[in-house]
Write a structure and sequence with these properties.
It is a single chain. This protein is α+β, with helices and mostly antiparallel strands. It has two domains: 103 residues, 2-Layer Sandwich (Phosphorylase Kinase, domain 1); 281 residues, Alpha-Beta Complex (Aminoglycoside 3'-phosphotransferase, Chain: A, domain 2). The protein contains 14 helices and twelve strands. α4 packs antiparallel against α9 and α9 crosses α11. The protein is globular. It starts with 8 loop residues before the first helix and ends with a helix. The structure holds 5-S-methyl-5-thio-alpha-D-ribofuranose and magnesium ion. Magnesium ion binds next to loops. The site of 5-S-methyl-5-thio-alpha-D-ribofuranose has 8 residues, from α6. One of its GO terms (biological process) is L-methionine salvage from methylthioadenosine. InterPro entries: Aminoglycoside_PTrfase, Kinase-like_dom_sf, Methylthioribose_kinase. GO terms for molecular function: ATP binding; S-methyl-5-thioribose kinase activity. Belongs to the methylthioribose kinase family.
């Protein structure tokens, strides 16, 4: 019999007192529910001095932003906690620390990150975090290399693939990224003025085949333990610090999916900035975003290469030149998945603050149009974009 019950604020305080790992648990007195994501309850737990000390997160048995008509597995809490624990082992400086989790209650207790801000909100305000792009690239290299066949023994890798089977959460991605934006679907949420642009996606056979190929690789290529949803809303930043959170979509998939999602959210912000800022500031902000894209990719690839030289355990994969050849495929995948993130966040269900914050409607429509067009360009160009400078040139050409 499952012990699951939905937590009240008082339950969250009692739970944090018991499992928060604090030396003074009786000091915890109140909880505030701050969850603003699509799926879960998130409580900040405060002490008597009104300092927030730990976070309690609970999965609901349905999609929060839709309601009980869309049931969703509670097992995602286990998958999230285990993904974060695994990523923390390989990159503690850039992964939130999970203090405790309970699969039955679908709850975990995490370190408090009140000194940090969600990166998306900061990008919308164009507040600079000069280290964030390289830190995110480093996080991706550390976590993805150490959970890949370069590093894990083949038996362990197969055990890990089994431990992280995540069919329901993957299905959400499979539908939201690769199906719904390209068919007429009730989840889609683009402005009516863009009907023709969206219809053009549906009727572009070359694009539909490229998207099918990306989806097929998402189904079939168990390359490493992905975060699975590493957009700018899943990243906390502070001066010189970055922490990934929210890994309930974690599973073994193609490395380029995580890298492309991260790059895609920088480019969504790039497309939105003309609607968010005055022209001169927007132009400077956009240059910074392009630099962030370059820095993130280079930090990822340099760290992954260094790890491959130092720590590859498989004899065949260690052969000089193989890691570079593999990273070229990851590059092409990253560009393609980046394009799908641009389209699913503008045409599809999961709209983002970067666009929603634009108050001038005509401008908002133009920024969204630009993101759709850039997304399409990147999906089609992915197999032909040689390197990061060629990608930046394509982005500039696109407007
Ligand atoms: C129904 S869940 C919609 C989206 O929210 C999550 O944050 C993921 O990005 C997912 O695609
Ligand atoms: Mg999330």
């Amino acid at each position: 019999m499952s012990q699951y019950r939905t937590f009240t604020a008082d339950d969250a305080v009692a739970y944090a007192q018991q499992f928060g790992g604090l030396a003074d648990p009786a000091e915890l007195v109140r909880a505030e529910e701050i969850g603003d994501g699509n799926l879960n309850l998130v409580f900040k737990i405060y002490d008597r001095a009104d300092r927030s000390r730990v976070v309690v997160k609970q999965a609901l048995p349905y999609v929060r932003c839709v309601g009980e008509s869309w049931p969703l597995t509670l097992d995602r809490a286990r998958l999230e906690a285990q993904t974060l624990v695994e990523h923390y082992r390989h990159c503690p400086q850039h992964t939130v620390n999970v203090i405790h989790y309970d699969a039955e209650l679908a709850v975990m207790v995490m370190e408090d990150l009140s000194s940090h801000q969600i990166w998306r909100g900061e990008l919308v305000k164009n507040i600079p975090y000069p280290q964030a792009a390289s830190q995110l690239g480093y996080y991706l290299a550390q976590t993805l290399f150490h959970t890949s066949d370069f590093y894990l023994h083949p038996h362990k890798k197969k055990e890990e693939v089994a431990r992280f089977i995540n069919p329901q959460m993957c299905e959400i991605t499979e539908d939201l990224f690769f199906n719904e934006p390209y068919i007429g679907h009730e989840h889609n949420a683009y402005p009516a003025q863009l009907e023709e642009d969206v219809l053009a996606l549906r009727h572009d056979d070359e694009l539909r085949i490229a998207v099918a190929s990306l989806k097929h690789r998402f189904f079939a290529h168990a390359e490493a333990l992905l975060h699975g949803d590493i957009h700018s809303g899943s990243v906390f930043v502070a001066e010189n610090s970055l922490k990934a959170i929210d890994a309930e979509f974690g599973y073994f998939g193609p490395i380029g999916f995580d890298v492309g999602t991260a790059l895609g959210n920088l480019l969504l912000n790039y497309c939105a900035l003309p609607g968010l800022l005055a022209p001169r500031e927007a132009a400077a902000g956009r240059e910074q975003r392009l630099l962030d894209v370059k820095v993130l990719w280079l930090a990822f690839v340099e760290r992954f290469q260094a790890l491959a030289v130092e720590k590859t355990r498989d004899v065949a994969l260690a052969f000089p030149g193989y890691a570079s050849a593999f990273l070229h495929k990851v590059w092409q995948d990253s560009v393609g998945y980046c394009g799908t993130e641009l389209i699913r966040r503008t045409v599809g269900m999961s709209q983002i603050a970067d666009m929603k914050t634009i108050s001038d409607e005509a401008m908002r429509v133009e920024c969204i149009r630009h993101a759709i067009s850039l997304g399409k360009t990147l999906i089609l160009a992915a197999p032909h974009v040689e390197d990061i400078d060629a990608l930046l040139a394509r982005i500039r050409q696109n407007g």
